[in-house]
Structures are given as C-alpha cells and as structure tokens.
Write a structure and sequence with these properties.
Largest interface: A-B, 49 and 53 residues
Oligomer: heterodimer
Distance between the termini of chain B: 73 Å
CATH class of chain A: Alpha Beta
CATH class of the largest domain in chain B: Alpha Beta
Number of strands of chain A: 6
CATH superfamily of the largest domain in chain B: Dihydropteroate synthase-like
Shape of chain A: globular
Strand content of chain B: 5-15%
Distance between the termini of chain A: 23 Å
C-alpha cells in the first residue's frame, strides 16, 4: 500500500490549530514534511476474519457492547514501518518544530491506512453491517489484547510489528483493532465524544473542537 | 542440505498445542521426531530442532522452562537422526521484542535471552540463528553463541522485497558484520521465494567469502488460504540458479515440506560447493550503510572534546543531543564515517562511549570509528556497536598490540594503526614504515585481514618541525604501495600555530591524497576541506563523469536570502521565529546592553508572549517551538559573549528530564526540553526508557533539585510512581528532617492532576508551557 496525499486539515487539528488556516510558513512546513513522511513510510497491514464468540478477543464490557449482535469480526493491524520512527528521531534532534509536524502527519497517515483497510473489509462482506474500529485501550478494552491480535496475525514475522514489555507498539505509528460484522443494521455504535473515555479531559473538546474520532 | 519448514508440518498435521508450538516437544515428542525423520529421509543432512521460539520471553506463561523445551527439542531431533549421519541444529529465532533504539530491550538483556538458549541446547551439533530482521539482535545472538559454546554458528536474516529487512538492514551490511563476528556461514531464510532472492544473495556474496545459506519460502502466501505458490520442482530450479554465488547450504522455510527437500536433493546430486571470493575491497558499515574504501572517504573529526569547551560541557551535562547534532551536521557536510571520542576526565568514558554510539546510531547511518586510548572503552564500544566499525587505534607498542588487536579480531572491526611505539614517533619515513610492517604482521597473525588495517603515518605540526611533513608523506606512500594497506591521517594538526590554517590544511590534504591517502580525518563542515576531497576524486578519475561532484555542487544555486529592509528588533524576531534576524539583533544589542538584561527584558518576555498566544490558541505548537528555537540562537550568541568575558552563566537552574522506564515515546518530553532550555534553564536530558536508579544517581551527582518525568501509557505510569518513590527515598536528596528537597513535575497523555498528586508529584503539567511555569515557580524565577 502506498500513501495518498494526507489530510492536512486533520494534521492541523492534531497540532492544536482547530479548524483555523495555517499561515504561510506553517503551510510550507506541512508540505515539506508531508513529502518526507510519504517517502519514508512503508505502510503494511494484516487482517483476518474470525467467528464470534471469541473469548480471548472480547475481554471487557466495552468490546462486548461494541460487538453485540455480531456473528463475525475482523482483527487487523497496520504500521507505517520503522523508517518513520527514525525520521521522527532525527527531526527531534535537528528541528523540534518539524518533529511535531511530522508526528501529526504520521498520525493522519496511519489513520488513512486504517480507513482504507476498513473499506477493503466492508467490500469483502457487503451483505453485513460493519462496526467502526475498536482498539485495545478504548474504554476498558485491555491493552494486553494487542498481544493476542498481533499473535493471531503473526505480525512480528510478517510485517515487523512488535510490542515491548509496556505494551507499546514498535514501530510506534501502528494500530491494532477489531471490527464487528452484523446481519442487522447497527444503530447505537457511532463514533464520537459520547462513547469516548477522554471526554472529561479532552483538549479538543475544551476548545470546542473535535479530534476526528 | 538443510531441512524444510517445521511450522508448516505442524500446521498441516492439525496438532493442537497450548501456548506455543515448541511445547509439542514435550507433549507430542513422537510427532516432532517423525517430522524430522521425514526430512532426513528426503535428504536433509542437518535438521533444525523445534526450538525457534523457545526463549524465556515467548515461553513465559507456558508453564515450561527454556531448558525443558530446548532439551526435549534437541532430544527429539537426535532420536530422529539415529541411524543416519544427519546433524541437529539448535534453532534460535528472534526474541519477539525489538531492541533499542527502535524498541526498548537492551543489548545485554537480549544477550541473556540467547545465552540461556545456547546453554540449554548444548547437546546439539551446531547452532543456527535465523529469521532475524535486526542486525543488532543477531549480533547479540552470535556473541551469546560464540561466548558460551564452541559449536559452528550459522546465521540468516529475512529480507523484504525492497532488499532490506524490516529494520532497514542491507544484505551487504549483514554479510560484512557477520563475517567479522566469525560465523561459519551466513545467508537468508524465510523472506521471499527463491525466485526473488537473487539480488540479496548476490549482494551478500560480494561482501563475504564465507559459504552462503539459502532457506527460502515456497513463494508468497495467498492472503486468504495461506497456501504458497511455488511447487517443489520450481523451487529446486530457482535455488539452482543461486548456487554460483557461493551457496553451500540450501533448505526450505515457510510453506515447504519434505517434497521440496526431495526435489532439492535431486537437483544437488553431482554438484559440489564452489567457494567464491568476495569482490568488494575494504569496507566498514552501520546496519544500513556500507562504505567501501575504494576511494578517499571523509572521516568527520568533530565528535571529540579535545580543545572544545562546549563539547566538554555537553559531556559533563550528559547533553547527548548536542553530540547528535554534531553528528548530523557532519554528515550533511559530507562526512562518510564519523570518529567518536568522548574521553574527558570528569566522566565515565566507558558508559558515555556506549551511550553516545547507540544514540548516534539511532539517528545516523554513517559507519563510526570508535576512538579511545583505553582498551576497556574500545571493547565496550565494539560490543555496543551495530555493524562493522573502525577502532582508533592500535600502535606499535607491545602493550597496545596485545590489548587492542584481539578485540579487533573478536568483534570483526577494522583498525587504525599508528606508526609510533615505545620509542615515540620515528623521525624518518623508514622508521614509521617499519612500525607499520610490525603492526600488519601482528594483526595478520591473529587473522585480521590486511584490508582491515588502516595505517596512520602521523601528521606533525609543520611550524614546529618543518621537514617532518615530507617524512609523513613519504611514509604514507611506502605503506600504500609496498604494504598495500589503506591509509588514514588526521589532517588538521599540520597547521597548528600558523595563521590561515584552513589554507595550509587543504594544501596538505591535497598533497596527501596524491600520495595515496584513503581516509582523511577532517572537519567536513569546512568547505575547502570537503571540497578538496571531492575535487580530487574528479581529477584522479575516480568520480566518473564527475557525477558526485555535480550532485554536491551543481544543484540549484542557493537562493539569496531576501534582503532585510529594516533590522528586526529582537522581540519581534523571537515572536515570529526568525533565527538569523534574532541572532543578529542579539549581537547588536550586546554592544550596548548587559547580557542578563537582554535575557530578562527581551528574550523571556518574548517567549512569554508566544506562550500566552499558544495557550489562547492564537498560534500552533510548531510556531511555539520555532520561537523557542529562535531564542536558543540568541542564547548561543550570549553564551559566547559571556565565555569571551570569562565566566558568568545564564543558567537559572538545573533540571533533569526523563521519559520513564518502559516508555519510548518521548516527543512530549523533548518539546518540554526545548522550552526549558530557552527559558535559560540547564536541562539534563536522560532520554527515554530511563531506569529509576539513573534518575536518582544523576540528581545526586549533578546536585539537581527539579526533576521532570513523562509517561505516555497507562502501563508505564507504574514506572513513574516507582521513580518518584525512589527519589523521595534517597537520603542524599533529603533535608535534615528527612523530607525530600526535590521538586518533581510530571506530564503525559494519560496523566491527570489527581493521579499526579496521588503518586507524590509536586507539579502536574498539562503541556510544555505549564512545565515552564512549574520551573519558574520552583526556582522563583
């Protein structure tokens, strides 16, 4: 998979700029960093369909609620690769303002990759209704589930995506998630502040903004 | 002849196992033995025991120890070999966690995992380390194998379609490094099908004369069915095409079964191994980049505290970022290899060398030259280095030869040989040539190839000994032509005590290049020096069609900076983040205004304004940082002025920053650092994944009272709490009444004010601006 042009407005939002237009210099910095990021990124992903129920993937109340009524689920993981981490390290030594812009753009990029995986998954099961992606760490869904997902997908060997002892993913710009498939339309499971854990302390909400979730 | 995949057979058999397939060694010993036997019957001479993932990390929770699983695995394979000549290999795969700098597992921890496996597998006939993607992890495994057993070692890595591993290792770097470490054969496994491996195998063969190993997958798996797409017959035919590259060991990896091995065996019948000699000349490397010394190559000299006040200060303050920026700017200037010297009486040179080498390798691909007079520092550096480095240096003294050369051999490095001995530096070229000869013969006797010895005929100061310059050049010429060694020379010494040193240096450099100098050690950020090397490569016919030269100088002409109509005032320059203007404005102001007054009345208020704008969302984070960096330029100007006046400091207090143990995301901490730096605080940055003990030790050593900690994940908040309690418990950091006098500020995505209080922090900082407020509050300024 190669990256398509990145959603810069999204990056600006990650940078705390809300929906305001960046000035000329910041725009130039954004385009510069976008080029650099796209050339460093080697997006890779894996997914697998599984039948529900599956105890080891559904620990915690929130994931159970999320997958309610689903017969099938898909586990997925995606990463931008090790070179992006390196790019971020170098930028943090040479130019911190560049580093934060690259970091924001990398967030946008991995989201783009996941969005495209969503589309692929939906296409493969057109007769079913798909939930949004639910990742370990959302609500009470334990971070340990990352281990299960990566092992199921043989991710360390196949795409070089690993965890450290604190359950941080390495390379850092990576995602693991579960989506559910149901034969009846899904109503309540919308993404948004109402279903988010961070709503009390969210810096975007305080500014009357939205993180995009 | 090696075997085929074990995992594939286990999968096909439908055998069920708990936790990991290696547990079958105990629960289904007969089944595993049967799989080995099928491979032996198909023609395998070596079978890999079912021990690939049997390390204590992957087995944790399985209820079995490494010794049990590996012992059983080797026994099963041994039983299968009975009645045949087949040998059993202890199979070692990746640990499953990434090593620093990408991950957080340390080299020594990795070594320990592997050591445990090697010891548990001592009944095997040989050791294979396979499917590695990180050369550093592989190095830990090879050292563990060689230091804890005397079995032959085979090592293979896994490459992607782009010819690199996941972590960016090139086949050439793998071949060079592994050959140096003394493995018995090396190559590639897993990865791709044998049809796609030719470029990888060919590249390896250019950089090693050792036998190669090819244990490929049966093509690519279908994403849905997980079936592989190359048949046994095709597989053997593709592998056959790889044999001329010096391939001695063949077998199969994922998707292969005994049929593939049968076909390979048929293909091999009547053929014998044809050794091939490597074609590349002297080369050194990092994990990603090989530098072949087939032309003059520039070694950057600036990572060295000698005569550099700022560098010494950076070392004393643990300011690794300063050293990293020196590394990156030298590479930008044209350095192809970097010398690394951190010898300074006030610090632990060994620890610092390891730390600096790792840090440089995390941001920079240039191969490094480990520079120290102490063998213990050299050894620590050699162990920590990822790739094939240069050791700087050995000399003709017996003491040096016997201490340094064995290290060079063991770790497979190249070495600089200085032509001096117990009698000092010989005056004549002949005397130096004799020492060079002695160094070469001693090195060769230990098995260090001549191509890995770089002789330095020593530059003497021409203003002190004018005729010595000729002797140096004559010696260099003789070493190059008569001994056939590569040569190396520190250039800058020549002009000491003379005016216009750059002119003298560059002419001397040109003369030396013409006499055969391969590795000039220079300051690559001085244009005429780097330029002289580049021009020489053109004039000597090395840089064909002047391609490199044009690439370096023929690009778009640099745009002239827009003329500044009016001199910007400092306040505005900082607020708008204009570095050049701000520095110039500082210089102008310094003529009439006191340095501290500039800091307090101009710089800090400007930063405060920017900070307020950021809080009010008028500006974005990158702009805040840009302004902070601009202030840094101003501080540099002011520091220079103060040090010119002799004394005085603008530091408002020392602060330790660290991202806690287990956490490797430190961008937030780094933002805080930039801001604190530029508010005039001295920041001691301990980096990420920091051991709680190191925080306490540093606080004591550096007499620091304010400590900032960051943690990103809920899983690492525990480390933060542990670090805080350790700080509070340290007697050296307590008042006479037993209360702690350290201020602790904490921050990070998942922290809350309540939690910060609960774990005993004094300040909770939501963002970098609040960290500055905390520091102001703590120091009262």
């Amino acid at each position: 998979m190669t990256l398509e042009p990145l959603d810069r407005a999204e990056a600006v939002r990650y940078l705390g700029g809300g929906s305001r237009e960046p000035d000329e210099r910041l725009s130039a910095l954004l385009s510069d960093c976008e080029k650099e990021l796209i050339s460093a990124a080697r997006p890779k992903y894996l997914y697998k369909f599984i039948d529900l129920p599956c105890a080891e993937l559904t620990r915690g109340e929130d994931i159970k609620a999320h997958l309610e009524g689903c017969r099938k689920a898909a586990v997925l993981c995606a990463t931008l690769g090790a070179e992006v981490d390196r790019l971020l390290r170098v930028a943090q030594v040479t130019d911190m303002s560049r580093a934060v812009v690259l970091d924001a753009l990398a967030g946008v990029a991995i989201e783009q990759v996941c969005g495209r995986i969503d589309e692929m998954l939906a296409e493969q099961l057109p007769e079913l209704f798909m939930t949004f992606r639910f990742s370990p760490g959302y609500g009470d869904y334990p971070l340990e589930t990352q281990k299960t997902i990566l092992a199921l997908l043989d991710a360390p060997r196949r795409i070089g995506l690993t965890l450290n002892e604190s359950l941080l993913m390495i390379p850092s710009k990576s995602v693991t998630a579960v989506v559910g498939f149901s034969s009846s339309p899904l109503t309540a499971k919308k993404r948004g502040c109402a279903s988010c854990d961070m709503r009390g302390s969210c810096k975007y909400r305080k500014q009357g903004e939205h993180c995009g979730f | 002849m090696l075997d085929g995949a074990m995992g594939t057979l286990i999968q096909k058999s439908g055998a069920r196992f708990n936790h990991s397939p290696e547990t079958l060694n105990l629960t289904r010993a007969g089944l595993i033995e049967g799989f080995h036997r099928r491979y032996i019957e198909a023609g395998a001479d070596i079978v890999y025991a079912n021990t690939f993932g049997a390390n204590s990390y992957k087995l944790s929770g399985s209820g079995h120890t490494v010794a049990e699983i590996i012992g059983a695995g080797v026994r099963n394979a041994k039983r299968a070999c009975e009645g045949s000549d087949a040998l059993v290999a202890l199979d070692i795969g990746p640990i499953g966690m990434l090593l620093e700098p990408a991950g957080s597992l340390s080299f020594d921890e990795a070594y320990e995992y592997f050591r445990e496996q090697v010891v548990a597998g001592r009944k095997a006939d040989l050791i294979v380390i396979e499917t590695m993607t990180d050369l550093y992890e592989l190095k830990a495994a090879v050292l563990a194998a060689k230091e804890n057993s005397d079995k032959p070692v085979l090592a293979t890595m896994t490459f992607e379609k782009n010819g690199r591993t996941f972590t960016g290792v090139s086949p050439a770097a793998a071949a060079l490094t592994l050959s140096g470490l003394g493995v018995d054969a090396l190559g590639v496994n897993c990865s791709l099908g044998p049809d796609e491996l030719a470029p990888v195998v060919e590249e390896m063969s250019r950089y090693t004369s050792l036998p190669l190993i090819v244990k490929a997958n049966a093509g690519l798996p279908d994403p849905n069915s997980n079936e592989y797409d190359i048949t046994p017959g095709q597989f053997a035919a593709y592998v056959e095409k790889l044999l001329p590259f010096g391939v001695k060991f063949v077998g199969g990896c994922c998707g292969t079964d005994p049929e593939y091995i049968t076909e390979l065996k048929k293909m091999l019948s009547g053929k014998s191994y044809i050794p091939t000699a490597k074609t590349a000349c002297s080369s050194v490397c990092s994990a990603a980049t090989v530098v072949e010394i087939d032309r003059p190559r520039i070694i950057g000299e600036r990572i060295n505290p000698t005569g550099k006040k700022l560098f010494k200060q950076a070392l004393a303050e643990n300011n690794i970022d300063y050293i990293l920026s020196q590394a990156l700017s030298q590479v930008q200037g044209g350095a192809e290899i970097l010398d690394v010297n951190v010898g300074h009486p006030e610090i632990d040179e060994k620890k610092m060398m390891v730390r600096v080498l790792k840090a440089i390798q995390s941001v920079c691909d240039a191969p490094l030259q480990i520079d120290s007079t102490k063998p213990s520092v050299l050894e620590a550096g050699l162990r920590a280095y990822n790739g094939k480095p240069i050791v700087n240096s050995v000399n003709g003294e017996e003491k040096s030869l016997s201490a340094v050369l064995p290290l060079v051999k063991k770790y497979g490095a190249a070495v600089v040989g200085l032509t001096l001995d117990e009698g000092g530096i010989p005056k004549t070229a002949e005397g130096r040539f004799e020492i060079a000869k002695r160094i070469v013969s001693r090195a060769e006797a230990l098995g260090i190839p001549r191509e890995d010895i770089f002789i330095d005929c020593l530059t003497l100061t021409v203003s002190a000994e004018q005729d010595a310059c000729r002797e140096t050049l004559r010696a260099l010429h003789r070493v190059k032509t008569e001994l056939g060694c590569k040569t190396c020379l520190g250039v800058s010494n020549i002009s000491f005590g003379l005016p216009n040193r750059e002119l003298v240096n560059s002419v001397f450099l040109t003369m030396a290049l013409e006499e055969g100098l391969d590795l000039p050690i220079i300051n690559p950020n001085i244009d005429v020096m780097t330029g002289a090397v580049r021009a020489y490569r053109v004039l000597a016919g090395i840089d064909r069609s002047s391609l490199d030269f044009i690439a370096a100088y023929g690009g778009e002409p640099k745009k002239a900076a827009p003329a500044v109509e009016k001199e910007a005032d400092l306040f505005t320059a900082v607020c708008s983040g204009l570095k050049g203007e701000a520095a110039a404005a500082t210089e102008r102001l310094l003529k009439t205004v006191d340095a501290m007054e500039i800091v307090n009345t101009k710089l800090i208020p400007a930063l405060d304004r920017v900070g307020e704008d950021f809080e009010k969302n008028k500006i974005f984070l990158p702009q805040l940082i840009r302004s902070a960096n601009t202030t840094q330029e101003c501080f540099e100007v002011i520091k220079r002025e103060l040090s010119r006046q002799g004394g005085g400091s603008v530091s408002k207090g020392k602060i330790i920053l660290a991202t806690v143990k287990g956490d490797i995301h430190d961008i937030g901490k780094n933002i805080v650092k930039v801001l604190l730096d530029n508010y005039g605080y001295t920041v001691i940055d301990l980096g990420r994944d920091v051991d709680p003990k190191l925080v306490v030790e540093t606080a004591i050593e550096q007499k620091t009272r304010l400590i900032g900690l960051s943690a990103l994940m809920t899983t690492t908040l525990g480390s933060m709490e542990e670090t805080i309690s350790l700080i509070r418990a340290a007697e050296e950091l307590q008042n006479p009444d037993g209360s702690s006098f350290c201020g602790i500020m904490v921050g990070g995505a998942v922290l809350t004010k309540e939690y910060a209080e609960k774990i005993g922090a004094d300040y909770y900082c939501r963002d970098a601006k609040e960290a500055v407020d905390a520091a102001k509050d703590f120091f009262g300024a």
